[in-house]
Amino acid sequence: MRRALASGLLLLAGCRREEPQAPAPLPTVAAADYDAFYLWPGVKPPAGVRPRLLYLLDGEVRAGGRPGLVRLRSGTPRLPDSAVWLVVRSDRLDWDEATRRAIFADMARWRAAGTGLVGLQVDFDAATRGIGGYRRFLAGLRAALPRRWQLSVTGLLDWSAHGDPRELARLAGVVDEVVVQTYQGRETIPGYAAWFAAMTAFTPPYRVALAEGSGWKAPPRLASDPRFRGYVVFRIDRGRR
Hints:
8-stranded parallel β-barrel; TIM Barrel; globular; two-stranded antiparallel sheet
């Protein structure tokens, strides 16, 4: 009986040793460690940081009714020491001429105020299987966009693994960069490293967007990828949910 009991205890001890360890927590994204930010109206860069690059939300093109730019930012930014992208979030792709004119007018006003404007970013959650239609929309926007401005878009991690390689290659000829969103809500998407490992068919230059306060550890070989242009931190407005 004692031998059986001892054997049972050893077996239980062995089982305990084989229990999987919880993964180590990822380092937290601290905004003060970066110099490129995506900012909602009313949200500022971290104190003491001089931003090199800013993505500033100007307004939205919302679903329902006729398309049009709903401006969210009061006043005109004056930021001569930073490279700035004017960002428009969109729920739809049926922009009319009046919508484009309103956006281009804001861009011209920002530039005239002394802001170091680089170009326009479209923040639209294009489904992976809909990249072809999105690319055609962007081609039309690019043709209408004054030549002095560049064109940026946000992109999903899923594009890298399941997007049509032909359409992704064509997208590279339309946009100047893709900012790949690694988060959903305020948390980093689990398993993100596997998505980056599948980015061999992703040809456009890209930046990686991180949510402030989320967990992040750079995937292998990201820093050495010649298409990688650096990070952008989405600053969290603590007053919003």
